[in-house]
Amino acid sequence: MRLDRLLALRGPFNRQQARLAIATGRARVAGAVVREAEHEVSEFDTVEADGAVIQPGRPARYYMLHKPTGCASATHDPQHRTVLDLLALPNKQELHLAGRLDYNTTGLLILTNDGQWSRRLTQPGSKLPKRYRVYTEAPILPEYAEVFARGLYFAFENLTTQPAQLTLLGSHVAELCLVEGRYHQVKRMFGHFQNRVVGLHRLSMGPLQLDSRLAPGQYRALSTEEIALV
Ligand code: URA
Q: Any alpha helices (H) in 80-207, and if so which ranges?
C-alpha cells in the first residue's frame, strides 16, 4: 500500500495531511525518513509518523524444508500428516506454501508468510526453472529429451507444455528442468511413454537450492541473501 494511504487509513490524518507529513519528513518506514507519498509499504514494515507508531510491522518469515515422503503439501489435511506438522515454530499457521509437491515427492519446499515474495517465486509468468531428479520404472530413452524439449500436449488443460530440459544421469534416472508446474506434471510427462515415476525429488526452485545438509523432514530459515535472490 502507498505510504500516504496507510497514514490516512491508520493514522490521525486525512490524505492531504498525510502527504504534508510525509513531504516535511515526519514519516518513517523501518526507521528511515521517507519523503515520497507513493512509497510502497508492506505489512512487514514499521511505520511511524510524528514519533507515533502507525503500524508496528511484523516479522517476515521464510523457510526451506526438505519434504519427506508420506506427507501432504498442505497446511490442513483431515487424513494425512502435513508439512506444517514437521515444523516446531511459533505461529506456524500464518505460513503458506510457495508451490506444492505430491504426497510421495521429496525435496525443496518453501514456506513463508510473505505473499508478494512467494508470488514472484510461483507465478507462471516468471518462468523460473524448477529442477527435479526423476527415478523411473523402465529405462529412460534418449528420445524423451527431444519430446520434452518440443512440449507435450495435455488434453485436460488443452495446452502444450513449455520446453523442458532432460539430462540423463543413468538408465533409470534423469534430471528434468521445468519452467511451469502443471498438476502431476513430471509423472504425466513420463506417463506419455508409459514409464512410471518411482521416485521424484525437487532440487531447486529458481535461485533457491535445497540445502544438502538438511535430511528429509528438516528445515531452516532462509538467509538474507537467499531471500533477496527472489
Ligand atoms: N510433478 C509431479 O508429477 N509431482 C510433483 O510432486 C512435482 C512435479
A: 115-122, 143-150, 185-191
